[in-house]
Specification:
Number of helices: 27
Strand order of the largest sheet: 11-12-10-13-14-9-15
Number of strands: 20
Helix content: 40-55%
Oligomer: single chain
Shape: globular
Radius of gyration: 27 Å
Structural class: alpha/beta
Low-confidence stretches: 571-581, 613-626, 648-672, 704-717
Distance between the termini: 67 Å
Strand content: 5-15%
Length: 721
Amino acid sequence: MDRNGVDYAAVLNPAQLEAVLHLAGPALVIAGAGSGKTRTLIYRVARLVEEGIQPEKILLLTFTRKASQEMIERASSLADARCRFVSAGTFHSLALQILRQHAEALGLSNSFTILDRSDMEEIISSLVPEIEKPKSRTRFPKRNTIANILSKSANLQQSMEQFLKTEYVQFQDCLPQLQILERLYAEYKQEHQLMDFDDLIINLRSLLADNPDVRIQLSQQYSYLMVDEYQDTNSIQADIVRWLAHEHKNIMVVGDDSQSIYSFRGANYRNMFEFTDYFQDVKIIKLEENFRSSQPILSLTNGIMEQASEQFTKCLFTNRVGGERPRAIDTRTEPEQSMFITRYIKEKIREGQSLKDIAVLFRAGYHSFELEAELTRNGIKYMKYGGFKFLESAHIKDFLAHLRVVVNEDEAVSWMRILRLVKNVGLAKGKSIIKWMKDNHGPLGRLGDWPGIGKNLQGLTQLAELLSIFDSSDINNINPQEAFKRVMAYYAPILKEKYDDFPRRQKELDQLLQIAGRYKNIDNFLDDLVMEPPTSSKDLGFDKEEECLTLSTVHSAKGLEWPVVFIIWAMEGRFPSAKAYQNPLEMEEERRLMYVAATRAMDELILCYPSKESLPGWQYEIPYSQTGLSSFIRGLPGDILHYEKIGGARKNKESCFKLPASDYSLDTPGIMDFSQGERVRHPAFGPGVVSKIVGDKKIEVLFRNAGRKLLHIEYTTLEKI
DNA sequence: CATCACGCTGTTTTT
DNA sequence: CAGCGTGATG
């Protein structure tokens, strides 16, 4: 019993207690999924505070800001209110904060702008025309791929040559071009005072490595360090941790090698085991008792990890008894999968389960599109995490570009966006205007003086007027919301002109305006948007705590749990390019990804896979043995999973799901018939008319409201009206 | 030099 | 589906 009345021994098991009572010196906590890792961290923070350590001096590093905020909140409500003042954040936010203070030590201005992924890609694609592409027949990588290559090689600290040899063999003959691009991109960033996410980390490390005084100052400022999800750090971040703890060695890292799923950004779970090489007398604590899942679920997850070629640690166990075996359900096709899940959820609700208790997890954002349509048609509310970020949609980026040049008038990426929105200005004119502005420093008000301005460039004059408003007032005193409204007055007509579905986009901008209202200055507002972009409608704060289903990528679901979890997994095998399963390394990560997904489930786990491919455009069928899921479950002992098949053609009597055939079988004439001229409704595109029957499962529909008039649509996304 | 229509391709994950 | 390249048009 301690002074404040938290009886740690009563709320923690022995291993957790050991971690919580550890005060000074290095410690490595190996914490299996669901072993109360967060709980342990929380109580350890509380414990440190109760020991009299100033909360500000405790630094808690996590991978998402959301995770750190939640931890702090729980710590201050569960244990000690002073925990509210603990310093917490992500590696990136810490780096930003420190670099803004010490930029000059690195020869940078402290008003640098942060590039998000799409900014990065935009710069790259503007640089690509400057290089001569290889003459050979092989394709040059797309901008997304180039960005991946540059980012990952930077994070791995490998030379381009070495990197291509090991990771992108297919682009090896583009080596000279990629090297040039790498250099051009670096020069561009230097010239325009820009940093991408990788630069934040890399620059922080150099700062720490080269400046003992900064290091000492920081180790005084943060004298106790904790790092969550340590298996997801890359070697640069591990260096940062080492430097930060260099003076005092009060460092506790917590992680689980089986949950390392970020190798695409250079993360290496071996960091965990190298930790003991860099610090002496590391206390190692293993948390192996699982408090989350039923034993049958753990048998599955243990089984999955037993197939891994490298396993360092633990086998999870629980004291819980009972529970159903996880189910593997062959839903035959993707539409049937969506219908199955939707029906099942409805039944659960009828049984009294809350929607909040159910989650559907998947590999990539677009894997849930089909399901989303089905849920919408059935009126099931859901919140989706991960995948596409709404901040990356064109209208939001366009709008924010205007605000960005208000803060930083040299910001060429944003200028390009803005200018190209003006009628009759394209790539070439945009470039020449930017060059002109550079040569004549101080573009804001004087854009109207551009010599090329003429009667067909009326838009430029208006833009100049808008910007002159900002130019004349003190930028630091502009209230973000006010600035927002002014830009909106200018941008709204452009929005209407450009998008047929502008009301939706307008609404999203209005939501963004609400967020802007929470800030006192534009700078911070923009920084926060890049560093911690809202990833779901919930983050935007407009859907109040409504009870709804969770849809999430596995990556975004990390650290969370639900009583009932569905996993949708089978699509990987369908891509001709999905050679993942031939590459043992990627296969290993895929396995850990499945492990993370499965360990989210508390009571009920349902793996769904359509054994038959049915997407438009990808007509060929993939044998079940090649689908992603089956490669995980093939090697498992037969009694770990309960196998089932559903689907019209199979008429499986064992199926737990008996529906009238017409309700969900594509083979049965019924709701899936459409004929030419029929009126239909799509959940996203609204009403339309069937214009043509293209094939067995494909029709063409003419939509009035959609940006595009003609779309090939799958039957199941449509509703007859 | 900007823009538009058309056809082809290729699909991740996050700060 | 979007994002890119191409070729025609203004």
